[in-house]
Specification:
Length: 275
């Protein structure tokens, strides 16, 4: 982390540690809500400091009591560029030098816009696709707009070589594997389904047999970034174990089937009589 984002992150982290000592005095439901809110604040800070200015539904705990730290948050854009963004710029330029197309994944809307604005200032042609929530029902026009951006991106001659997207909006609705072989993860969420779907955007049948898919994870040292990645890897492993498990397939003979049907019919008659 750069200077100010590190100061802010560590201040929040220390505050959480102090508050955690008092949690045993509260009821479990409140403690769980506080923990979710604190984790979200750490995620926000590790993605883009100014996200800390947004309100969280059901969470009003003040983690920024220090006035100087609060002023750093409000004025952050004038103080420094996040270290992640600087690294991302370097990585993208390096990949573009190799004529590679890149999809950049981030989970917060303000972070997506920050990335798009910064890369555009560097003269890099990029476009943005995002949705407010995973369950948002989009209009026909909006869907067409997303599809046109995707079509432009996968066109090798379009000049659009950088796509910035939110897994919640298009983690399962776009196929990029025929022309894009590099995915950059600016931040991660705990949603394993969205994570796995986003991985599959550049690794699918019909292109990945020939071209290697490359995943780049940008993380801050000694932060929640490593905890989230570890959590996702554990979930992925457990899901894979379930998929690979051998389950016995049982068949019923006709006499067993007839007996079951009689019992079901009798149950339905009794139920209807009770109603």
């Amino acid at each position: 982390m750069n200077k100010y984002e590190n100061l802010i992150y560590r201040a929040i982290e220390n505050k959480i540690i102090d508050y955690a000592k008092q949690d045993y005095l509260m009821n479990i439901e409140l403690v769980q809500r506080l923990r979710r809110g604190r984790v979200m604040r750490l995620r926000q800070c590790a993605s883009y400091v100014k996200l800390l200015l947004t309100a969280l539904d059901g969470y009003e705990e003040d983690l920024i009591a220090n006035k100087s730290i609060a002023s750093f948050i409000y004025d952050y854009d004038n103080l420094e560029i996040p270290a992640k963004l600087q690294f991302l710029e370097h990585l993208v330029k390096e990949l573009r030098h190799e004529k590679q197309k890149i999809v950049i994944w981030a989970n917060f809307i303000a972070t997506l816009k920050l990335i798009a604005k910064h890369l555009s200032k560097q003269g890099l042609n990029c476009k943005l696709i995002y949705g407010a929530t995973p369950i948002e029902q989009t209009s026909i026009d909006e869907e067409e707009n997303r599809e046109s951006i995707r079509a432009e991106f996968v066109d090798p001659n379009s000049g659009l070589d950088i796509l910035i997207a939110n897994p919640a909006a298009c983690g399962e609705s776009i196929s990029l594997h025929k022309t894009c072989f590099h995915a950059v993860y600016y931040d991660l969420s705990y949603n394993c389904a969205q994570y796995l779907q986003s991985l599959d955007r550049i690794h699918r049948v019909g292109g990945s047999e020939i071209n290697q898919a490359n995943y780049h994870f940008i993380q801050y040292k000694n932060t929640i970034d490593q905890d989230i990645e570890s959590n996702l890897r554990d979930k992925t492993r457990k899901m894979q174990e379930i998929i690979d498990e051998d389950y016995g397939v049982y068949s019923l003979n006709m006499s067993e089937r007839t007996t079951i049907i009689k019992h079901l019919r009798g149950f339905l008659r009794r139920t209807n009589a009770n109603i």
